[in-house]
Amino acid sequence: MANSSGSLYMGFDLSTQQLKGICVNSDLKLHYEAKVDFDEDMSKYGIQKGVLTNPAEGEVFAPPAMWLEAVNLVLDRLHDQGLDFSKVKGMSGAGMQHGTVFWSADAEHLLNNLDSSKTLVEQMEPGSKGERKGAFAHPMSPNWQDASTQKQCDAFDARMGDAHMLAEVTGSKAHHRFSGPQIMRYRTKYPSHYEQTARISLVSSFLASVFLGNIAPIDISDVTGMNLWHIDKGAYHEDLLELAAGGKDKVAELKKKLGGTPESGGDAFGTISKYFMQRYGFPSDCQIIPFTGDNPSTILALPLRPNDAMVSLGTSTTFLMSTQTWQPDPAYHFMNHPTTAGLYMFMLCYKNGGLAREQIRDKLNSNGDKSWDRFNDTAVSTPPVSQTSASDDMRLGLYFPRPEIVPNLRDGQWRYAYNAKNGDLKELSNDFTPDDARNIVESQMLSLRLRAASLVRSEKELATSKHLPPQPRRVYLVGGGSANPAIAKICGEVLGSVEGVFKLDIGGNACALGSAYKAVWGCERKQGQTFEDLIGGRWDEDKFVKKVADGYKEGVFETYDEAVKGFDKMEKLVLKHEGERQGTLTGGRVFMPEDGHGADSQSGKAESAK
Ligand code: XUL
Questions:
Q1: 512 and 36 in contact (C-beta within 8 Å)?
Q2: 601 pLDDT tier (thresholds 50, 70, 90)
Q3: Is there a cis peptide before residue 407, judged by omega within 30 degrees of 0?
Q4: Which is it for the CA torsion 194, 198, 204, 209, positive or negative?
Q5: Which residues pair with 329 in a beta bridge?
Q6: Best of 98, 206, 226 for a ligand 1 pocket test (most atoms within 8 Å of beta carbon)
Q7: Measuring CA to CA, how many Å separate 220 from each of 134, 135, 229?
Q8: pLDDT tens string 140-182
Q9: Which of 46, 40, 44, 45 minimizes the C-alpha distance to 18?
Q10: Which of 93, 155, 488, 504 sits CB 3.0–4.6 Å from 291 for a disulfide?
């Protein structure tokens, strides 16, 4: 299709706390953006930070009815800004990964026959006493922060042999939040609701379904966040389905509930439903391009090349790369790339991030001041790993205000001195010192460097044409912490990205932008044209990204090479000590709950200097 000027494309991001809607043109420029904040706008649902919880069972969930209400509201807000929906030729969207929505047998009919004079929620979740009516067989959607499925996770790992084998097959070991274990628990906790569930969507395909007016397929990338998809075969894994469904004879029924997953991330599911044409004036040919998970969508916010990395510095930390290398491991995730067959998305998801840095900032300020000035000044004036000379010990630490899963460790802080010459580790007093400002950022970046090491390759330094040690080509920062120059500087020094550290400077939010770009690609690509090619061709580097820090620095990078070894050793030692401690406390099996975590990619207040 030709690059039709005047066309607009929408992208949505349905995250834990907000629904964002944005609009770009064919040249990828941002024109409109609006959001609905659940705590602010939807407090009547009783949610906090977008969710409801049942701490006794580790459950975290949210009502899809609230999201329906948010869809109307975000479109109303875009309309109030002057968005002419009749120009919208296509849309795509993203949803927080892993969450499931359980549709009733009436859902499809309801979605198909909506009265445009009424809101979505009044027609699809009319409220019921006793028997459920409306579009949902179950009123809640388990959230990615849910931690109620340890038993089911054990069963999933065991079904393939162990966590390594499950990761080998599905790209990830069993995780509490992943949809397979969640569906298994739902079936046993709410058998009648499971029975009444005609279809199961992920959060992304739920949102796509609303716009499509039919239950939309789960997309090729988000399907790999379920622990159910055999990545190599490109199909659901029968044994894992059997486990989730509760028997061989139940597999076909679960398959039907899940529906098919098309191979292409770019072929439209269909056109927008009549409801949105009549109520908002969308054109009848507005294409619904597959909606995907928030992390896969985030990597589409720019033409990310192999060996480029994205680091999302929100409440949690996420590291994303697009790669051809298939190297699964229980410590991280491999997922199908959302647009390009043969590519994978490598993802590291930490639970800790912004909060850990804020704690150190608050210790440094000590007067309740929330400014980052002192933290930043201290961080950049402290030498790498607190070494004033190469013979000094390196100061390393772990800072986890919340239980972490990379590695699987309780909340707490640990500080060590590492002697790089003889490999000795000495535990330090666990009290705060100002060096922590640098050491905490180093700690977070060293963990990324350690785990991404085998995926990055050697780059040639442009100026000298010299081959450098393996490292990312570029690091792109997104999320609240990306506004902080000290974090960007240390990130560049530790990860050593040869071209430096960059920040998206296009406005909007990376995840919603990725979706809008996916819609542009889905609608305007020529036969066989890849996402990278189309978006790369329209990408205005000077306007869309800003270099915020240098990367590779000879000498510093090599110092961190030594530090990574010490960091790895320190983590293993702490894990061993904690294992022993737990063992003596419980007298038996060591169980470290894998609490919720992840990249609600744009969350976290901006860690700017002011
Ligand atoms: C990823 C994850 C989170 C959610 C919410 O595995 O659980 O990043 O996608 O953002």
A1: no
A2: very low
A3: yes
A4: negative
A5: none
A6: 98
A7: 28, 25, 10
A8: 999 998 999 999 999 999 999 999 999 999 999 999 999 999 9
A9: 40
A10: 93
Distance from the CA of 466 to the center of ligand 1, in angstroms?
38
pLDDT at 599: 36
Buried b (16+ CB within 10 A) or exposed e, 196-219: bbbbbbbbbbbbbbbbbbbbbbbb
Instruction: For a ligand 1 pocket test, name from 49, 317, 320, 601 the mutation site with the most ligand atoms within 8 angstroms of its C-beta.
Output: 601
Min mean pLDDT across 3-17, 75-89, 146-160, 273-287 is at 3-17
| Positive or negative: CA dihedral 210, 216, 221, 225 | positive
Ligand 1 centroid to residue 145 C-alpha, Å:
8
Lowest-pLDDT choice from 2-16, 20-34, 274-288? 2-16
What are the tens digits of pLDDT across the range 441-461? 999 999 999 999 888 887 766
Buried b / exposed e across 450-474, counting CB within 10 Å, b at 16+?
bbbeebbeebeeeeeeeebbebbbb
In whole angstroms, give the CA distance from residue 367 to residue 370: 9
Q: What is the DSSP string of 504-532?
A: E-SSS-HHHHHHHHHHHHHHHPPTT--HH
The ligand 1 atom nearest the CA atom of 318: 8
**In the structure, what pLDDT confidence band is assigned to residue 506 with cuts at 50, 70 and 90?**
confident
pLDDT surpasses 80 at 590: no
Query: Which residue minimizes the CA distance to atom 2 of ligand 1?
Result: 598
Ligand 1 contacts CB of residue 294 (under 6 A): yes
295 in contact with ligand 1, CB cutoff 6 A: yes
Among 593, 330, 264, 319, smallest CA distance to 446 is for: 319
Q: What is 297-309 written as a DSSP string?
A: HHTTTTTPPTT-E
Residue 595 has pLDDT above 60, yes or no: no
Nearest to 319 by CA among 296, 294, 348: 348
Q: Of 35-44, 46-55, 126-135, 233-242, which gets the smallest average pLDDT? A: 126-135
Task: Out of 144, 319, 336, 478, give the residue to mutate to test ligand 1, the one with the largest number of ligand atoms within 8 Å of its CB.
Answer: 144
Q: Indicate if the pLDDT at residue 133 is higher than 90.
A: no
Q: What angle do CA 252, 255, 256 make, to 5 degrees?
A: 90
Cα–Cα distance measured from residue 121 to residue 35, given in angstroms and rounded to the nearest whole number? 18
Which residue, 301, 401, 335, is CA-closest to 30?
301
98 lines ligand 1 (CB under 6 A): yes
| Ligand 1 atom 8 nearest Cα | 599
| pLDDT value, residue 588 | 39
Task: Give me Rg for the CA atoms of the chain.
Answer: 24
